[in-house]
Write a structure and sequence with these properties.
Blueprint lengths: L1 E5 L4 H11 L5 E5 L8 H9 L5 E4 L13 H14 L4 E5 L5 H9 L3 E7 L8 H9 L4 E6 L4 H8 L1 H4 L7 E4 L5 H5 L1 H4 L4 E3 L13 H7 L10 E7 L8 H11 L3 E7 L3 H11 L1 E6 L13 E2 L1 H6 L4 E5 L2 E5 L2 H6 L3 H5 L5 E5 L3 H11 L4 E6 L2 H11 L2 E4 L11 E4 L24 E4 L8 H8 L3 E3 L1 H17 L13
Helix pairs in contact: 2-3, 3-4, 6-12
């Protein structure tokens, strides 16, 4: 079930949230600690207007909430609301014991969600604590904080570790925990929390619209094909907006999920646990995945970089769709020899695909990188020239400038990798970054009259190729239908 956490500062705001978002969710959580004032009669009246199951929560500051008064006052307010309002659940912390409050809930048929929060880590006794709570007849809830893909693997093992429990809630806060929220059913959780758009109740909360329509989280089951993207960072990725709408269009039981990954080996263990069918690879893992692949395509072998991994019966196969995705917007220019000389900024995994694509089309290439040794190494492999990012004279005769670094990407979108370079106006600038839509570098090139190619064009092209590699099906959406 999807549970909307009401984050309004007034009951009037929460009423609007209920009316607007009720079709998207199965139940609500009323966070009275977020209200400007706690008016017992008004809150009770509000609760009776909610047609779906309602969780009553008053979260203390030390547990990530906003309630500042004493535990005694809080217990009194909760007891009054349980008596006069209409609630299906009340959320009480593991260390908060008030027998009279618990008895009141029991008498009213209100179930207790007994929660504990760890804002720093995933505790080593996680499953023991949840089991202990369940033995008292309460619903255990663990909101912990993963800081590695290993922690995420631990959370997804909950279904095996807690298989004797009928109901529980487990999730991770923050970016690491996003897959645990989308794939909550695969952790064994009976619900996951969502927020109103732009009003997250906690770090890692996704909005109700995205969870219901983009990820279709409430429809995931053991037959769902799981795909995703791994990287660090990765939450900015627009790839879910390419793949998920295509699955929906074809009526496929499939979902595409972002995974923040610090260790590729551990992610492959998670992929085995979840039965992941394929995944995209972004920085910095395009070379890190290579040792774990049983088969690679010709492009991956030549480039030494892989951005697409798919499970083929007994092994993982590596593909590089960056190569063809990059070429699509400039293919006719290369064939018509309107682009003969190119400068590539950066020497990472994306740069490797770009340089090989250009060299294979007889284009002269110069690689400029902050660390000159890395540029030189790639240049020697590809037959290109090299230099440092400060050697701006090497750009002056280029027909094409390709920006492959993360400089200028959100949240550092005020940066420019070649700030001192003055555009002539007849260059083509190909910027692989797509967030923001126009980087500082692109704005300068546009002002000079240059032709611009956005990273969105490459992302769309390579994403379509990835979809077809994963599924074996033709991509079903028109260009206009791919919105990100």
């Amino acid at each position: 079930m999807l549970c909307l956490t009401m984050t309004g500062r007034t009951l009037e705001e929460n009423l609007k949230l209920k009316e607007n978002l009720s079709p998207l969710v199965d139940l609500f959580e009323l966070r009275i600690d977020l209200l400007e004032s706690i008016d017992i009669p008004q809150i009770a009246e509000f609760s009776r207007s909610v047609e779906k199951p309602l969780i009553l929560t008053c979260r203390r500051e030390r547990d990530g909430g906003a309630y500042k008064r004493t535990d005694r006052t809080r217990a009194s307010q909760l007891a009054q609301l349980l008596e006069s309002g209409r609630f299906s659940y009340v959320d009480l912390e593991e260390d908060f014991r008030r027998s009279e409050l618990e008895q009141r809930a029991q008498q009213r048929g209100i179930e207790i969600i007994r929660s504990f929060h760890d804002t720093a880590s995933v505790p080593s006794d996680l499953f023991t604590r949840m089991d202990r709570i369940a033995r008292r007849g309460e619903i255990p809830k663990a909101a912990v904080t993963a800081d590695s893909i290993s922690n995420v693997l631990t959370i997804f093992s909950a279904r095996q570790q807690l298989k004797e429990l009928s109901r529980y809630i487990i999730l991770s806060m923050g970016d690491w925990g996003v897959p645990t929220r989308i794939l909550y059913k695969l952790t064994g959780s009976f619900l996951t929390y969502v927020s109103p758009e732009g009003m997250p109740a906690a770090s890692g909360h996704l909005d109700a619209q995205a969870m219901k329509h983009l990820f279709r989280a409430d429809q995931v089951d053991d037959r769902t094909k799981i795909y995703g993207i791994i990287g660090n960072p990765v939450m900015h990725s627009a790839s879910p907006k390419i793949h998920n709408p295509a699955y929906m269009k074809l009526g496929m039981n499939a979902v595409y999920v972002p995974f923040l990954v610090d260790d590729v080996r551990t992610f492959f263990s998670l992929a085995d646990l979840l039965g992941i069918s394929g995944f995209s690879v972004t920085v910095p893992h395009k070379q890190h995945v290579l040792p774990y692949l049983g088969k690679i395509t010709r492009e991956v072998k030549q480039i030494g970089s892989c951005n697409t991994v798919v499970w083929e019966r007994e092994y993982w196969k590596g593909v590089n769709t960056d190569y063809y995705g990059f070429l699509k917007p400039i293919y006719e220019d290369l064939e018509g020899e309107r682009i003969k000389k190119a400068v590539v900024l950066g020497s990472g995994g994306s740069a490797r695909s770009v340089v090989w694509a250009l060299r294979n089309h007889q284009c002269s290439v110069t690689i400029l990188n902050r660390t000159v040794e890395k540029a030189a190494r790639l240049a020697r492999e590809t037959g290109a020239s090299w230099g440092g990012l400060d050697e701006l004279e090497k750009i002056r005769e280029a027909d094409l400038i390709v920006q492959t670094t993360s400089v200028g990407m959100i949240p550092n979108d005020g940066q420019d990798p070649i700030e001192a370079y003055q555009f002539r106006g007849d260059e083509v600038l190909y910027e692989l970054i797509y967030a923001p839509e126009k980087t500082k570098l692109m704005k300068r090139a546009e002002a000079a009259g240059c032709r611009l190619i956005s990273g969105k064009e490459m992302l769309r092209a390579q994403g379509i190729l990835q979809f077809e590699t994963f599924t074996g099906l033709t991509f079903p959406l028109s260009e206009a239908e791919v919105v990100f």
